[in-house]
């Protein structure tokens, strides 16, 4: 697959500054990086963003994430590899990514499950990171940004 254009975020320097600020804010609230990366990977899988799914999984592996967890993010409900807090964050990511799929996009039970594990600032960071991931996904999918080829 060939990109339709250079990634829009790299063409507009002010966009890069804004995206970097969102990244920094989301990663500064005390949510474990592994939780944010799981959320990023799951949202990217849902949105079909190969570039983000690839880079996210590779970054997680480099940070020491296990293959068992990486290979089962899409099936997190059916596998034993995730904590209750991670499961709540993954469920929130799925609902917040698929907003048009139901009349009540993020039902109370989903929010309340996440709120059992995360404080308000941490929830703010997770929601911000889901939204930022969806921003990345929409730019990449729309402009057909490919995942890099890795050999070997």
Automatic annotation (TrEMBL):
Q: Which Pfam families match?
A: CMD
Which residues are in the Carboxymuconolactone decarboxylase-like domain? Answer: 13-94
Under Gene Ontology molecular function, one entry of this record is:
peroxiredoxin activity
Q: Which Gene3D superfamilies match?
A: AhpD-like
Source organism's superkingdom? Bacteria
Q: Which InterPro entries match?
A: AhpD-like (IPR029032), AhpD_core (IPR004675), CMD-like (IPR003779)
Position of the signal peptide: none
The protein's name in its UniProt record: Alkyl hydroperoxide reductase AhpD
């Amino acid at each position: 697959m060939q990109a339709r254009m250079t990634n829009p975020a790299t063409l507009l320097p002010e966009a890069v500054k804004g995206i970097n600020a969102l990244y920094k804010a989301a990663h500064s609230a005390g949510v474990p990086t592994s939780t944010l990366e799981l959320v990023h990977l799951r949202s990217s899988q849902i949105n079909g963003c190969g570039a983000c799914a690839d880079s996210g999984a590779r970054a997680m592996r480099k940070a020491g994430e296990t293959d068992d967890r990486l290979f089962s993010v899409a099936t997190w409900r059916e596998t034993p590899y995730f904590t209750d807090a991670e499961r709540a964050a993954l469920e929130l990511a799925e609902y917040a990514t698929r907003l048009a799929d139901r009349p009540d996009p993020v039902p109370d039970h989903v929010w309340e499950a996440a709120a059992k594990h995360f404080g308000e600032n941490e929830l703010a960071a997770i929601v911000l990171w889901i939204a930022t991931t969806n921003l990345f996904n929409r730019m990449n999918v729309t402009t057909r940004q490919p995942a890099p080829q890795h050999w070997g």
